Amino acid sequence: MGFPEPFYRWRPHPWHGLETGPDAPEIVTAFIEITPFDFVKYEVEKRTGFLKVDRPQRGSSSPPTLYGLIPKTYCAERVAALSPEVTVADGDPLDICVISERAIDRSEVMLSARVVGGLRMIDNGEADDKIVAVLLDDAVLGDARDISEIPEALIARLEHYFLTYKTLPGEAHQVEIPEIYGREHALGVVSASMQDYEDHYGG
């Protein structure tokens, strides 16, 4: 007896084995690595695809939204070209922060999200953009199409989290956020990361 289609004999790699999204760059798949309930930073280990402990959160805050990666994206030359302050990107999958009105308290889940904007972040001289999206069909914010439609307090929390998540009081900041951008630029960043992935891993 055969297995039904589609069937994966082995679990797909979250970065390389899942699709970017049903209507990328606007509607993308997010593979969630961290939830707002996590005080440890987890991330997908690039070789195996398993979730690993990266480090405990250094400060007292946890991420204000779901946080993960967009499959089959890569931050390299094309993504770096969208940040005038730098010449290189961080060489990771593109990060995504997903807003959900209902609490999702587990990671290693995949979901569909609508891209509404992003944070143009520079981390130690490398482009490290954070795409902001809303959970598709979210009951409260599912109709949002641009970051301007998201409560300012939530975006301020995201900005504060990323500005401080690697530093403690008295330490020099490693991170800058020169710009919070809207939907159109965010779609350009996602498209650039998809092309960077194709350039480096395609074929």
Labels describing this entry:
single chain, 203 residues, alpha+beta, Inorganic Pyrophosphatase, five-stranded mixed β-barrel, 3 helices, 9 strands
CATH class: Alpha Beta
Q: Numbering strands along the chain, what is their spatial order in the largest sheet?
A: 1-4-5-8-6
Q: Percent range for helical residues?
A: 10-25%
Q: What is the radius of gyration?
A: 16 Å
Shape: globular
**Relevant CATH superfamily:** Inorganic pyrophosphatase
Number of domains: 1
Terminal-residue CA separation = 33 Å
Q: Major beta sheet, specifics?
A: 5 strands, mixed, barrel
Q: Determine the oligomeric state from the structure.
A: single chain
Q: What is the structural class? A: alpha+beta
CATH fold name: Inorganic Pyrophosphatase
Low-confidence stretches: none
Give the DSSP E fraction (strand runs of 2 or more residues): 25-35%
What is the helix tally?
3
Overall strand count: 9
Going by CATH, the architecture would be Alpha-Beta Complex
